[in-house]
């Protein structure tokens, strides 16, 4: 018994010796954000303020929704998000309201205007992560990084994998049906190539008649829309009837308007990339296939 | 002048007017009657109410007391268009925003005779020609206004007023900024119009001596009141002129008309 | 002579606008094409009416306020129209005519305010007060508009500003009909004021002595020009530059007599806007430029060219 006991005691001694308290606090999760900054937390975030609806959805989707202490007024999904206090519409972010929530992590959409808000928050000692989220391809990296910062790495990884495979998916064999996304009617503004909605349409197998326009959104002449004769007019709308402009005489030069072929896409599901993007694609495809 | 007394073209009776927020009346208790073929001059120092009197005469202002009648009808009842066919005015100041030729400028005087949509007729152009000839401005007809001298420009403005074919001509300080020759030419022109065309004339001027030489009747205003009215020889006495213009003068007579000569009043060094 | 040249220019602009466009319609199919008849033809006619109205309104206003820099939109009308449009969108007014009617109402409101300001005291529509009042009312309306946009549903309202920048995309035979029924009266009032406007150039007092009923003319010209501008804004947003520069371009050839200047400004303004709209639709096809951008880019060189020729001559 003597040497065994001694070895165990020696090992315990070694272990104790190795566990000397160091001069620095333990280093927690750390990621590179899209503004080139390194965001390091002392511990996985427990009080998160999300300033983008897509981030809110991601946080809930990876099971960290109970840690949200602040959201924007636009964050309406999932329904549980509505119980989280709002810190304003986020355009631009109300730094005081955000700081008042005493967050240990703020998720900000990476844009020029938000850089200033980010600096102000960082100046108050609040860790801020500025992340891109314009395209499907941005979802995976964003999810992974949020996962690391919240300590929900495994859940974030499976979420990210699903979103990456969606982003990498080949566009379906083109459905013979074509559509146009009309964002505004006077002057007519349509969605062009490279934007999120355009990708959704491609993944659902529909052809955006304005895929040749390089800008995400562009003003076009009504006669161009009429000449390209899309089968469907898609609008972001939560209501079910035809949009107001359908009653205007000049829009009746477009066949789809005359025939009432409108696709009303709910803004919450279709307006932004997020964990439900594949659901959006599926729903769009279903509507196109169901219609005559 | 024949013995008949024709109806007055313009009659102001005891008019009084005060501008809003002014401390005293601009014009008070002034009367004036102008008949065809009469040349009236209105004299007075600055601020004595001469231009106000013209505005009252033309219905641009409504008197607080007294009456103003043009051709026996109250002035403010005349519409601008009708009045412009009876009275032609050469105002003291006017803007010249656009380059114009003399003929076009004089043609503006025909406005009151033109119908709303109708074009200018031969009789309008004839009236313009007559007006230009009467003012000795015929050779200037195709010149641009901006190329004219001060005297030529004044003649054109008189021609424009004549193109209205009025019965009464009103001129507000027409000689200001004209040199000796041009001012004399202007007064000769006006006198000629009175004598040959039977126009009535009301002419406001600073120039006491010219008024005395050319006018049939003179009205002297001082602080809005009529200091004297009547024939120049009767009215322009030394006492009156000295009182109204606050400066010592001597009166000399030329061609039967009084001419005033201001006397020196050197200042003593302080 | 110059009227012939103007007519030819207008005719060419018309033809180009109907024949050219981002949707390639072969010449043989023009007469049968629905695009041409439902979209291009009414748009061409509307552009002509709007451009002509702005040209005449600009000429009338420049004579009224005796200032060559006057522009129909200096009177606060564009600010009022923008406020009306934004209120309509923020309160979710429905109906295809909601936006134009709200913009028109807003413009009328601004008109009434500035007119009332012009009557304060003994002002009697003093041109300086009209101009200053117009700038003040316009600035006030723009401030209220910005406040509403900042506080309300941001995305939709930002698109309202796009509308305000001017464009003829909402052109249809309906809007052509409305403008055709509406415009003749204010246009007639302005044409009838042509001679008094010549007199007004001498000053208000000399104009009165020459026989013009100055107060009546000022009132009518101000109201008619403003009503034309309000209708133009309601139908096509704020298309700047036409009302300011077309009168000057036309004056270079027709002089200052308004009997010729006003009709020439109508045809010239109409032709310019038709041409500018054609360029706006075709130059970056399938995209479209705001027409106000094109009127400035097209109008300035033309103006500079004419100015050089006539000052050299």
Helix content, binned percent of chain C: over 70%
* Uncertain spans of chain B: none
**Which stretches of chain C are poorly predicted, pLDDT < 50 over at least 5 residues?**
none
Number of beta-strand segments of chain B: 12
Taking strands numbered 1, 2, ... along the chain, how are they ordered across the largest sheet of chain B? 6-7-8-3-9-10
| Structural class by SSE content of chain C | mainly alpha
Tell the overall outline of chain B. globular
Summarize the structure.
The complex is a heterotrimer of chains A (about 290), B (about 270) and C (about 325). Chain A has about 290 residues and is of the alpha/beta class.
General description of the model:
- Chain A contains 11 helices and 12 strands.
- In chain A, strands 7, 8, 9, 10, 11 and 12 form a 6-stranded mixed beta sheet that branches.
- Chain A has 292 residues and is α/β, with parallel strands linked by helices.
- Chain A is elongated.
- In chain B, strand 9 (217-222) and strand 10 form a beta hairpin.
- Chain B has helices at 50-57, 80-84, 102-107, 122-134, 150-163, 180-197, 208-214, 232-235, 238-245; strands spanning 10-17, 27-34, 39-43, 65-70, 73-74, 87-90, 168-172, 200-204, 217-222, 225-230, 249-254, 257-262.
- In chain B, strands 6-7-8-3-9-10 form a 6-stranded mixed beta sheet, with helices on both faces.
- The mean pLDDT of chain B is 90.
- Chain C has 313 residues and is an all-alpha fold.
- Chain C has helices at 2-19, 34-64, 77-90, 98-118, 127-151, 154-164, 173-182, 184-192, 194-200, 204-209, 214-236, 242-254, 258-282, 291-312.
- Chains in contact: A-C, B-C.
- At the A-C interface, helix 8 of A face helix 2 and helix 6 of C.
């Amino acid at each position: 018994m003597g040497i065994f006991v001694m070895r165990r005691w020696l090992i315990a001694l070694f272990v104790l010796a190795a566990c000397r308290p160091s001069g620095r606090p333990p280093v927690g999760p750390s990621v590179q954000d899209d503004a080139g900054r390194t965001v390091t937390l002392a511990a996985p975030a427990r009080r998160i303020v999300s300033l983008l609806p897509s981030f809110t959805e991601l946080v809930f989707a990876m099971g960290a929704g109970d840690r949200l202490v602040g959201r924007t007024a636009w964050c309406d999904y999932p329904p549980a998000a509505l119980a989280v206090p709002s810190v304003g519409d986020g355009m631009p972010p109300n730094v005081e309201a955000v700081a008042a929530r005493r967050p240990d992590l703020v998720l900000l959409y990476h844009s020029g205007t938000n850089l200033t808000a980010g600096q102000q928050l960082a100046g108050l000692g609040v860790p801020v992560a500025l992340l891109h989220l314009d395209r499907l391809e941005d979802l995976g990296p964003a999810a992974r990084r949020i996962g690391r910062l919240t300590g929900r790495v495994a859940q974030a990884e499976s979420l990210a994998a699903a979103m990456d495979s969606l982003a990498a998916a080949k566009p379906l064999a083109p459905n013979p049906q074509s559509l146009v996304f009309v964002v505004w009617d006077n002057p007519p503004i349509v969605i062009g190539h490279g934007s999120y909605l355009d990708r959704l349409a491609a993944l659902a197998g529909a052809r955006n008649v304005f895929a040749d326009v390089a800008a995400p959104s562009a003003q076009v002449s009504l006669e161009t829309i009429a000449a390209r004769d899309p089968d469907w007019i898609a609008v972001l709308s939560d209501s079910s009837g035809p949009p107001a402009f359908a009653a205007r005489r000049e829009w009746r030069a477009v066949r789809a308007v005359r025939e009432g072929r409108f696709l009303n896409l709910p803004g919450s599901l279709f307006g932004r990339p997020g964990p439900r993007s594949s659901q959006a694609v599926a729903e769009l495809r279903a509507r196109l296939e169901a219609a005559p | 002048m024949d013995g008949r007394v024709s109806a007055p073209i313009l009659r102001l009776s005891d008019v009084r007017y005060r501008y809003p927020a002014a401390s005293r009346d601009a014009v008070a208790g002034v009367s004036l009657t102008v008949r065809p073929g009469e040349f009236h001059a209105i004299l007075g120092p600055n601020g004595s109410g001469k231009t106000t009197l013209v505005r009252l005469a033309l219905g641009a202002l409504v008197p607080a007391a007294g009456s103003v009648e043009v051709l026996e009808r109250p002035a403010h009842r005349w519409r601008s268009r009708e009045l412009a066919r009876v009275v032609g005015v050469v105002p003291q100041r006017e803007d010249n925003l656009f380059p114009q030729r003399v003929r076009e400028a004089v043609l503006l005087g025909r406005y009151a005779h033109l119908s709303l949509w109708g074009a200018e007729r031969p009789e309008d152009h004839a009236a313009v020609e007559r007006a230009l000839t009467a003012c000795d401005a015929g050779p200037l007809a195709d010149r641009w206004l901006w190329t004219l001298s001060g005297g030529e420009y004044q003649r054109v403005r008189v021609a424009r007023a004549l193109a209205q074919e009025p019965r009464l001509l009103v001129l507000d300080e027409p000689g200001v900024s004209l040199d000796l020759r041009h001012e004399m030419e202007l007064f000769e022109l006006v006198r000629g119009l009175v004598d040959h065309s039977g126009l009535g004339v009301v002419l406001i001027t600073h120039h006491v001596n010219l008024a005395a030489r050319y006018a049939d009747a003179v009205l002297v205003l001082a602080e809005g009141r009529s200091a004297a009215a009547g024939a120049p020889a009767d009215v322009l006495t030394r006492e009156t002129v000295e009182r109204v213009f606050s400066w010592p003068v001597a009166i000399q007579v030329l061609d039967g008309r009084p001419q005033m000569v201001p006397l020196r009043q050197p200042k003593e060094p302080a | 002579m110059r009227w012939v040249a103007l007519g030819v220019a207008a005719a060419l602009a018309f033809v180009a606008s109907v024949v050219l466009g981002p949707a390639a319609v072969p010449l043989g199919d023009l007469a049968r094409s629905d695009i041409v008849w439902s979209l291009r033809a009414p748009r061409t006619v509307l552009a002509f009416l709007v451009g002509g109205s702005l040209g005449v309104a600009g000429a009338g206003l420049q004579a009224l306020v005796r200032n060559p820099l006057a522009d129909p939109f200096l009177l606060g009308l564009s600010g009022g129209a923008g406020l009306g449009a934004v209120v309509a969108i923020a309160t979710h007014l429905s109906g295809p005519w909601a936006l134009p009617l709200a913009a028109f109402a807003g413009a009328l409101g601004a008109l009434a305010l500035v007119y009332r300001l012009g009557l304060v005291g003994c002002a009697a529509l003093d041109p300086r007060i009209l101009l200053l009042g117009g700038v003040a009312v316009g600035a006030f309306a723009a401030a209220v508009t910005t406040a509403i946009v900042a506080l309300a549903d941001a995305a939709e309202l930002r698109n309202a500003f796009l509308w305000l920048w001017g464009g003829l995309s909402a052109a249809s035979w309906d809007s052509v009909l409305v403008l055709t029924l509406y415009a003749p009266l204010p246009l007639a009032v302005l044409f009838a004021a042509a001679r008094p406007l010549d007199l007004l150039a001498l000053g208000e007092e000399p104009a009165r002595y020459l026989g013009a009923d100055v107060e009546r003319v000022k009132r009518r010209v101000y109201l008619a020009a403003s009503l034309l501008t309000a209708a133009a804004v309601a139908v096509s947003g704020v298309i700047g530059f036409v009302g300011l520069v077309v009168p000057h371009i036309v004056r270079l050839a027709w002089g200052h007599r308004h009997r010729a200047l006003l009709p020439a400004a109508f045809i010239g303004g109409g032709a310019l806007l038709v041409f500018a709209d054609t360029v706006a639709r075709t130059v970056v096809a399938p995209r479209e430029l705001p027409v106000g951008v094109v009127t400035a880019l097209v109008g300035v060189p033309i103006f500079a060219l004419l100015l050089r020729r006539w000052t050299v001559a």
